[in-house]
Design brief:
Butyryl-CoA Dehydrogenase, subunit A, domain 3; two-stranded antiparallel sheet
Amino acid sequence: FFFSHLLGRRLLEFLPFMFRLRALLRACPPLPRADEQRLRGLLREIAQTPPGDDVLPARLGKSLMSAYEALQPPGRLGFLSILARQDVDLSTVRRSCQNLLAAEDDCRAAASLRARGALREALEPPSERIIGRLAQQPGGLRFLVAMRADLLSALAQRGPFAEAAPPSPSLSPPAAGSSAATAAAATAAAAAAEAGSVASPLAAEGGEAGEGERGEGLRERWRALDGSLRRLLSTWFDQGLLKLEALSWETSPAGLLGRVMQYERVHPFTGGWPDLQRRLGGGDADGASEGGAAGRYNRMFALTHPRMPGEPLVFVHVALVGEVPSRLAAVLPSAPPLPSVSPPSAPPPSASPPAAAASAAPPPFAPTTAAFYSISSPFSGLRGVPVGGLLIKQAAASLAAAEPSLRTFVTLSPVPGFRTWLTARLARQRASGGGGEDLSGEGAALNGLLQALSAAGLDETAPFSELGPLHGPISTGGVQSPEQERADAVRRSLVGLCARYLCRATQRQRALDPVAGFHMRNGAALIAIHWAANPSSYGLEESASIMVNYHYDMPEVEARHSAYVAKGACL
């Protein structure tokens, strides 16, 4: 009796169905009508539960999340389709509108306020109330982020929901309570190694009528559900709820550091834990960075959320250097050289160096430039939630406070869409017979590249294939051989076309390149394009070794952000 009283008869009625839900959805994405109706009823129960009744949603929410996580992609899509059909009751909306208009006509202020509140409640879809209930459960926020990732994957498909990509191999990070140094030692020893109470029922027009929806009608419901998820996640991942973590080898939890290693995709930690240690600080303080400036320090920052402990929502690598970097080698820490061994005849080093030698020591390195060279957001379910730009701005403020010598904040960024764009443009240029629509602009630039490639005896894939003489530096003067001149013409043509791609290739007045769009939307300005900046295989494949600098001029960031949002201006 006590158990029944605590959970209610409704919960006991749905529990057997919850145990069967995994097998039902896994085996057959289009649910039998009776089981689909039960699932609709379960979602309706969660949506209609009064705010004070937390037992029923908690039990049902936990069961629902467990069942969903056990499903294969087709079963998950079946669930998302049902959730997307949890729409407003249009009859309730009409009635609320009529009540509001009547109250306004009669000039009844109190009645008008009540009618407005009722209309707001009527316009809230049950799907949003269900999402809100799930977010309140332990692990609910993480679940919703993963669920939105599934939804975005479905929206990206033209056909049926494809099988999800296999998960990344686990790095088996150590327990969160241990230190990173201990974890690294253990890893080496073992050689191994993210409301309101509304009683509106499921809408007869918005829900049941959609049961037979297919194609674009259903996709529109998915888009509406994604809009709700994005809006709610943007509220729950607001600036005031996120914590900036300055990652440290000595003090950061090893579990958090292990996940950073696992999630890094731009510059993977090929050297394991020692590689991570180099990127967390110290750097080459006694070495020479680009341009002869002595010293380099490295930092890493991450944003975390209290409801997703131990998970780096987004993290960034920063190099503190003496000038704006023009190549990846200037910021990416390298493995230290092997220790030198003194020859037997050499005298032992003096324990107390002379005072003159000590006075000749160079002054401590004072970095002037913070270069953000890698930013990663491992959770695709947070796409469109503005956490990345927030991280850069908060990290810049933290660095400025810790390093008073810093004056300039820039990125060293890839150009991931350049090859795809250029290949399509060249194909169109060839199809038009080399004429094009604008010989004074893009058409002339494309013709120039084709002519330069032909003169150098290269095909269109050469700049994006294996490293070769073509990927040497662009000449700044002096005598060149004919071969060097021809290669230089190809390099200059590619850099010019990359500038056109970044500043003029747009979609809906937004930069076509995703990295460019991200930084310009955050208020940064494109200031330099560098050839032979990233000679790695992926750097060649996506952008022929080109990298660029975006400048974050902090006093101008907001004005640039507004200009980009209003006009799509390339700054």
